[in-house]
Design brief:
By secondary structure, the protein is an alpha/beta fold. It folds into 2 domains: 7-178, Rossmann fold, CATH 3.40.50.620; 191-283, Pantoate-beta-alanine ligase, C-terminal domain (Pantoate--beta-alanine Ligase, Chain: A,domain 2, 2-Layer Sandwich). It is built from 10 helices and 9 strands.
Length: 284
């Protein structure tokens, strides 16, 4: 059976009109928000969305409000036509490509702050980042009004922040995390991986290897402080500098964990050259 061509929208009103027709026919709508520069990890999200719903909307929006003044907004990879071709090939029903002026019109003055979960980890190094994420995702959820929205677990702190905002604001949407897709050597797929030169790409899988070793040690009853200290030394020896954080946190509250008695995550953010890599591994 051939699939209908990918529909493209740059504004919320025509997208909503299309969605209204889908809903009248009883379709379950799934949203996959992205910042473009799509890779196999994104396509895994699209496949999951197709399995869970009747219609799939993928948004592409490089959100300026989640980038700090010294971050890579201007050089963040963008290839819209290639992205649209991938979405069409994946059988996505609609691509939503809002304009910055449409998302943040003149005199835009509202931001969403999620307290607690945003303090520490990436929040300590990227002030304002999670407010930008929570605000733009809330806008996307309001514009599309999906039954379900999918987010990758690689950005684990982001996933928890979005879940909390949706719960606290009574948004009628289910948020589901999708496990991280990895290269054969363990490196988490990321749009920023294309920044890595050959030497850095060869070193990059050490990040996941260290996280996996710590998670395994914790599951066997090991001491978190010792395992983290060894992990930091291994990353430093592999050329990660700085290691912004390497920590064990509760998988629901992100509270620090010393002995694992309930679901936890080992999380890290570290630089290889100019490229910031993040990753996390479940404990147990």
């Amino acid at each position: 059976m051939s699939h209908a061509p990918l529909a493209r929208f740059t504004a919320a009103a025509p997208l909503r009109a299309e969605l209204a027709g889908w809903r009248r026919s009883g379709a379950r709508v799934v949203l996959v928000p992205t910042m473009g520069a799509l890779h196999a990890g994104h396509l895994a999200l699209m496949e999951r969305a197709k399995a869970l719903g009747d219609r799939v909307v993928a948004s592409i929006f490089v959100n300026p409000t989640q980038f700090g003044p010294n971050e890579d907004f201007s050089r963040y990879p963008r290839d819209t036509e290639a992205d649209l071709a991938l979405l069409a090939g994946a059988g996505v029903d609609a691509a939503y490509l809002p304009e910055v002026a449409g998302m943040y019109p003149e005199h835009f003055s509202t931001r969403i702050e999620v307290e607690g979960l945003t303090e520490g980890l990436c929040g300590a190094y990227r002030p304002g980042h999670f407010s930008g994420v929570a605000t733009v995702v809330t806008k996307l959820l309001n514009q599309v009004q999906p039954d379900l929205a999918l987010f990758g677990e690689k950005d684990f702190q982001q996933l928890l922040v979005i879940r909390r905002a949706v719960r606290d604001l009574d948004l009628p949407v289910e948020i589901q995390g999708v496990p991280t897709l990895r290269e054969a050597d363990g490196l988490a797929l990321s749009s920023r991986n294309r920044y890595l030169d050959a030497d850095a790409r060869a070193r990059a899988p050490r990040l996941h290897a260290v996280l996996a070793r710590i998670a395994e040690g914790l599951s066997a009853g090991g001491d978190a402080a010792r395992l983290l200290e060894e992990g930091r030394a291994t990353l430093a020896a592999a050329g990660f500098d700085p290691v912004q954080y390497l920590d064990v946190r509760d998988a629901e509250t992100l509270a620090p964990v010393e002995r694992v008695a309930r679901p936890a995550r080992v999380l890290a953010a570290a630089y290889l050259g100019r490229t910031r890599l993040i990753d996390n591994v479940a404990v147990g």
